[in-house]
Amino acid sequence: MLLFNYGQIMNKLPLANLPTRITRLNRWSAECGKNIYIKRDDQTGSEWSGNKVRKLEFAVQEALSQGCDLLITCGGIQSNHCRATVSVATYLGLKSAVLLRISEQPPLEGNYFLDKLLGADVRFCTRDEYRDHRGEIMQQMADAYAAQGYKPYIIPEGASFGIGVLGYYFAMKEIVEQEKAMGVSFDTILVATGSGGTLAGLQLANLVQGYGKRVIGVCVCDDAAYFQDIAARISRDALPYLVAQGEISDDEAARWAASLKPSDFEFFEEYVGIGYALSRPEELEHIKRLARLEATVFDPVYTGKATYGMVNELREGGRLRNSENILFIHTGGLYGLFPISRTFPV
């Protein structure tokens, strides 16, 4: 029986189907000579499936408490986060607007199709505009909507900001209770990293609660130093929210704010491949192989690259060679497979 009680958490919307189950991937475990487990955060919902809804449960509750009636966020054209944000907004009767990064006019498919189906206002920007000015553009959008009478709430990329960190802080506590119920202890936890908030929440709980686990983010864009800086910064930003939740005291928050450093967060940066949302043939073959081995489908942007990295690091000489009980957080992304289905090597 799961002992963790989400009803005790304050300032949180009950959106996701929690707790998500943990299962052992038996055939992959036999191949690797390790115990490989998967946490099915791809099953947090349907329209808002994936990891982002855990963060949105806290961020959108804050938006509602501030009287906001419009959610604005950003991401790539097939962003799971944007689709989840739009879904949550529509479910709650709010308006939504998304800033999507493109290199050319996109076909209406996958997550972008769902954004439109669910009623989002969509604005496009170039990759350079997104990289250098997305915050400014979203603020301009917010100002324009405010002039129309809306009260907007801006959610940054991936909901990876202070309050969003709470989603996976509490997910780590959920995992520890599931360990007790299952009679297993995970020495290593891995997750794909594209904006940093999921890894930050897991590792912040790991540090604050003293769980002693190795928590690793596998980068799908940028490098380790970039994400280490982000994870340390937004973890510090999360500390006042943990005080408000009764998780830590003001004095503890001050000590953690002074002691948290980028090197507290571990990332594998070698599996970005040819770039964000771009796949090499070997990565697609890996997705196909695991789908046929375990009936578990990973996506090409996040979980496919991260589990491809796991396979390589489990080999002799790899950085996971001393891990025995490994938990991979499946963060969703199924809809992102459909736009590449015509070229997928099946």
In brief:
This protein is α/β, with parallel strands linked by helices and 346 residues long.
Summary tags:
single chain; 346 residues; alpha/beta; Rossmann fold; 2 domains; six-stranded mixed beta sheet; four-stranded parallel beta sheet; 14% strand
How would you characterize this protein structure?
The chain is of the alpha/beta class and 346 residues long. It has two domains: 6-49 and 162-343, Rossmann fold (3-Layer(aba) Sandwich); 52-159, Rossmann fold, CATH 3.40.50. The chain is built from eleven helices and ten strands. The strands form two sheets. The chain has a six-stranded mixed β-sheet, with helices on both faces. Strands 5-4-3-6 form a four-stranded parallel β-sheet. α2 crosses α3, α3 runs parallel beside α4 (110-117) and α8 (224-244) packs antiparallel against α9 (250-259). The longest helix is centred in the middle third of the chain and has 21 residues, at 127-147. It is globular, with a radius of gyration of 19 Å. The model has no long low-confidence stretch (mean pLDDT 96).
Topology:
Elements: E1 22-24, H1 26-32, E2 35-39, H2 52-65, E3 70-76, H3 80-91, E4 95-101, H4 110-117, E5 121-125, H5 127-147, E6 152-154, H6 162-182, E7 188-193, H7 197-209, E8 214-219, H8 224-244, H9 250-259, E9 266-268, H10 281-294, H11 303-313, E10 325-329
Parallel strand pairs: 2-10, 3-4, 3-6, 4-5, 7-8, 7-10, 8-9
Antiparallel strand pairs: 1-2
Helix pairs in contact: 2-3, 2-6, 3-4, 6-7, 6-8, 7-8, 8-9, 10-11
- Order the strands across the largest sheet as they lie in space: 1-2-10-7-8-9
Helical content stands at 40-55%
How far is the first residue's CA from the last residue's CA? 40 Å
Structural class: alpha/beta
What percent strand? 5-15%
Spatial extent as radius of gyration:
19 Å
